[in-house]
Amino acid sequence: MPIIESLACGTRVIAIENGPFEELGSTYDEVFFFRDEDVDSFISTIHMIRLQNKNAPQHHQSFLSDETQHLFSAENIAQQYIQFVKDATEDYYARNIS
Questions:
Q1: Are 12 and 49 within 8 A, CB to CB?
Q2: Vertex 78, ends 77 and 80: CA angle to 5°?
Q3: Rounded to an integer, what distance in angstroms lies between the CA atom of residue 31 and that of residue 19?
Q4: Fewer CB atoms < 10 Å away: N or C end of the chain?
Q5: Does position 81 have pLDDT exceeding 80, yes or no?
Q6: In whole angstroms, what is the distance from residue 63 CA to residue 41 CA?
Q7: How far apart are the first and last CA of the chain?
Q8: What kind and span of H or E run contains 34?
Q9: Cβ neighbourhood burial of 10 (10 Å; 0-12, 13-18, 19+)
Q10: pTM strictly above 0.85
Q11: pLDDT tens digit string along 11-29?
Q12: What is the pLDDT of residue 57?
C-alpha cells in the first residue's frame, strides 16, 4: 500500500527488484528498482532519480486515477479517522456505561 500512497502523492518510489511490488512498479515509470543487498545499485538508482528531478518541471503530478487519489486524500483520511474515533468511543461507552 505505501507504493500506491506515494504514487498518489506524486512521489517517486524506490523498491527492491524481485520484491512483491515489482509487478506494480512495471506499470508506472515512477517506480525504480535496485538489486537486493547491492549498495552500488541503490546509489545508482538514487542518482538516476536525482538527474530526472533536475530535468523535470517542479509541480505536483499524481500518476493514479482521480478515484484512487481520492482514497488517499487528506479529507478522506481525516473523515475515516474521525469515524474511527466516534465508533471506538461509542463502543467503549456501550460496554462500560450500560
A1: yes
A2: 65
A3: 12
A4: C
A5: yes
A6: 25
A7: 39
A8: strand 31-34
A9: middle
A10: no
A11: 778 888 876 767 665 666 7
A12: 58
**Is 82 exposed, middle or buried, given 0-12, 13-18 or 19+ CB atoms closer than 10 A?**
exposed
What DSSP character marks residue 16? E
**Placement of cell 535496485 in the chain:** 34
> Side chain identity at 40, as an amino acid letter?
D
The SS3 of residue 37 is coil
64-68, 82-86, 93-97, range with greatest mean pLDDT: 82-86
Burial (CB count <10 Å: 0-12, 13-18, 19+), residue 7: buried
Rounded Cα–Cα distance for residues 6 and 8 (Å) = 5
pLDDT given for residue 64 in this prediction: 62
- What percent of the chain is modeled with pLDDT above 70? 77
With H, G, I as helix, E, B as strand and everything else as coil, classify residue 15: strand
